[in-house]
Amino acid sequence: MSPIADAQTTGAAQRARVLQAMTELVGASGYAQTTVAQLAARAHISRATFYEHFKDKEDCFLAAQRELGERLADEVSGAGRDAAPPDAWRATIAALVGFARHEPGTFYVLTHEAMIAGPRARDERDLLMGTLGETLQDAFARVPAGAPAPDISVALVLGGIVRLLGVRKRRGDEASEELLGDLIAWIESYGSVARPARFRDLAAHDAPPHPTDQPSGRPAPRPLPRGRHRLPAETVAQIQRERIVHAAAEAIRTHGYANVTVAEITAAAGISREGFYTHFHDKGEAAAQVWELIFEGVVATSAGAFFQAPAAWAERVWAAQGAFVNFVATQPSLAHFGFVECYALGPARALRIDENVLAFTMFLQDGYRQRAEAALLPPTAGEAIACAVMEIYTYYVRHHPLEELWKLAAPVAQMVLAPFMGVEAAEGFVEGKVGVAQAGGSEKRGTGLGGEGAAVT
After folding, report:
1. Contact at 8 Å (CB) between 405 and 325?
2. What is the mean pLDDT of the chain?
3. Which of 154, 169, 178, 217 could make an S-S bridge to 331, C-beta 3.0–4.6 Å?
C-alpha cells in the first residue's frame, strides 16, 4: 500500500473510532457530560487529530447521528418490506423496538440525546423520524382492503413508541418482547374495517372553536418599585424568585439551555447577580424551577377543567385537552423549555420529568371502564398515549406558531379516546366537537355520548 493510501486508511479508521467513541460515551453518560478530551482518549488519538476530522463536539455528534440514523432506518424499512402485506406494519414496529433492545445506547443517542445536543441535532432527529414515518405509512398502506388498518397518525405512533422507549431505558427496563406485544395491542386498538382511515393526516383537520376564558399561566411579576418601599421581605423575595424563573425561561428560549449564562438571566430579570445567587445555586437550579412552574400550571389547569366538566368521560378529556393547549399556547417561553429543553437538566431530573409526563395517565383511568374491550388494554397503552402527546406537542412548539396547537385537537383527542371508546364512537364525538357538520360535511351521525352529531367528510 502506498503512503498516501495508508494515510487515507488511517484517517478513515481514526474517524470511525471517534464516531464509535461518541456513540458509546453519549449513550452511557449523555451529550452534555461528554468532552472532546474524552472522545480523543477513547478513540486513541490526540485532541489535535480530533480537530482534523471534526470542527467541534457538535460536528462529531451530527456525523455519528447521521450514520447511526441511516442504519436504523435501513433496518426498519427492510423489516417492513420483507414482511407479508397484512403484517408489514407490525414488522416495522418490531424492528424499531428490536433495535432499541439490541442497541439501547445507539437508540438512546438517536432519540433522546439528539434532543439535548442542540437545534441542528434536533433537526436531524426530525429527518430520521420523518423517514421512519414514511416507512410505517407505507406499511399501513399495504394492509389489504377489508382488513383492520390502524386509523392514527404515524407521527403519533412513532412519537409514543420512541418517547416511551426512552422512559423505560431511564428506568432501567429493557425493550422486551412483552413491551412490543403491548405496543402492538395499543396500535391495533385503532383498527377498523368499517370505513377508510381519517386521522392519519395531522394537517387534515380544522381547529375547533375554543373558549377564550380558560385559565392560562400567571405572568411574570412586575419589577419591584424603585427606591424605598414598604413591601415585606418575604414578598420581595417571592417577586425576585418568580422574575428569575420567568427570565430563565425567556433566556433559554433565546440562547438555548447549554449556552445561556447567569448574566443573561439576571439581565432579563432586572436583578443583580447577588440577587440571583440569593435564590439559586446555579442556572440549572433556576431551570428546574421553570419545569416545576410549567408542570404545576399544566396539571392545575388541565385537572381543573377535567373535574369541572360534565360527567361523560370523553367530555372531561376534551375539556382537559383544551385547558392544556390554552396554557401552553399562552406561555411561549415556558412551553419551549418544558417541551424542548427540559431533559438537558441531566439524568436525575429526567427521571422526575418522566414521572411528571406519565402522571397525565390519571385522565385515562376511567377510559378502561368505557367498554369491555377497553378493560383488556395493557397499562402500556396509556403510557404510550401520554408519550405521544408529549412528542407531538414538542414538535409543534418547535416548528409552529403556538396558536396552531389547536389544530392538533381533533387527531390528538381521537388518539386518546379511540382505544377506550372504540374508533367510530371516538370519531363521532371528536367530529361533533370540531363542528365538521357546520363546515360543510354531509350526513350527521350521533355520538352515543349525549353530544351533537357530526358529519363525515
Report:
1. yes
2. 87
3. 217
